[in-house]
């Protein structure tokens, strides 16, 4: 296959991979972030301690993480067809990719949120901050560098999953490498695909590390003081209202 013949196919495969990974990442983050925070809040000694809910959510996440992606993709064939109208192609691959990414990202979020200084949480509680205030003003901002790193890890994992999805008709670079490289015994084309994936992953990792370091440095300079001062400023106003 000449380069003029391969180029449009390769470009289409790259676009399909970016679309699959992009949409599945958005869904995984949108669902996995509150799920990970809920795992922390409902755990023992959490702000919303509920043993039953914590164990049920934890078991669901564990089952989702333990299932190999290829098996999950096949098991979700009927559900994928119901959602997208088809079980093959890049659009169909978004469904199993997103479902596999949700528990993966949720566990990373749980780990990141648990790293937040518990003394800061207790200080905000002492000032009268409720659960929503703690999540919005403390837990998420303080764990943001780790959350960015977790998102980077999730994106890279989903790129690997998308390549596996391509091997069973999911489209993208994986499908391109199997169809035009492996099946036609064109090792050069396969190595080109591997090189493209390596470059994309390296760029994503570099951008994610850069963003995480920048947020960490900014947080180190500002410290928790401004957040506590902001919350404390609301306290006198509340006390004045009570006196009146």
TrEMBL record:
Q: Identify the SUPFAM superfamilies for this entry.
A: MetI-like
List the GO biological process terms. D-methionine transmembrane transport
Query: Topologically, how does it sit relative to the membrane?
Result: Multi-pass membrane protein
Q: Which Gene3D superfamilies match?
A: MetI-like
Where does it reside? Answer: Cell membrane
Q: Where is the ABC transmembrane type-1 domain?
A: 14-212
- Report TM segments: 20-42, 63-82, 88-106, 146-169, 189-212
Annotated GO CC locations: plasma membrane
User: Which residues constitute the signal peptide according to the record?
Assistant: none
- Main subcellular location: membrane
This protein's UniProt keywords: Cell membrane, Membrane, Transmembrane, Transmembrane helix, Transport
Entry-linked PANTHER family = ABC TRANSPORTER PERMEASE, D-METHIONINE TRANSPORT SYSTEM PERMEASE PROTEIN METI-RELATED
> What protein family does this chain belong to?
Belongs to the binding-protein-dependent transport system permease family. CysTW subfamily.
- UniProt protein name: ABC transporter permease
Q: What is the lineage of its organism?
A: Bacteria, Bacillati, Actinomycetota, Actinomycetes, Kitasatosporales
């Amino acid at each position: 296959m000449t380069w003029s013949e391969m180029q449009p196919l390769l470009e289409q495969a790259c676009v399909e991979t970016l679309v699959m990974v992009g949409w599945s990442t958005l869904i995984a983050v949108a669902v996995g972030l509150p799920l990970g925070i809920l795992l922390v809040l409902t755990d023992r000694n959490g702000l919303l301690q509920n043993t039953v809910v914590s164990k049920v959510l934890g078991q669901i996440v564990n089952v989702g993480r333990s299932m190999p992606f290829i098996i999950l993709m096949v098991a979700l064939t009927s559900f994928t067809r119901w959602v997208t109208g088809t079980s093959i192609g890049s659009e169909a691959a978004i469904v199993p990719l997103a479902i596999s990414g949700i528990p993966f990202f949720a566990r990373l979020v749980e780990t990141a949120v648990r790293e937040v200084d518990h003394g800061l949480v207790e200080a905000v509680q002492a000032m009268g901050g409720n659960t929503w205030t703690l999540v919005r003003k403390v837990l998420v901002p303080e764990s943001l560098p780790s959350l960015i790193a977790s998102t980077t890890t999730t994106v890279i994992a989903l790129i690997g999953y998308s390549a596996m999805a391509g091997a069973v008709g999911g489209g993208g670079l994986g499908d391109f490498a199997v169809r035009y490289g492996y099946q036609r015994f064109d090792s050069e084309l396969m190595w080109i695909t591997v090189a493209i994936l390596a470059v994309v992953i390296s760029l994503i990792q570099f951008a994610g590390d850069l963003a995480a370091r920048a947020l960490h440095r900014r947080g180190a300079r500002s410290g928790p003081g401004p957040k506590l001062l902001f919350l404390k400023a609301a306290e006198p106003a509340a006390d004045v209202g009570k006196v009146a």
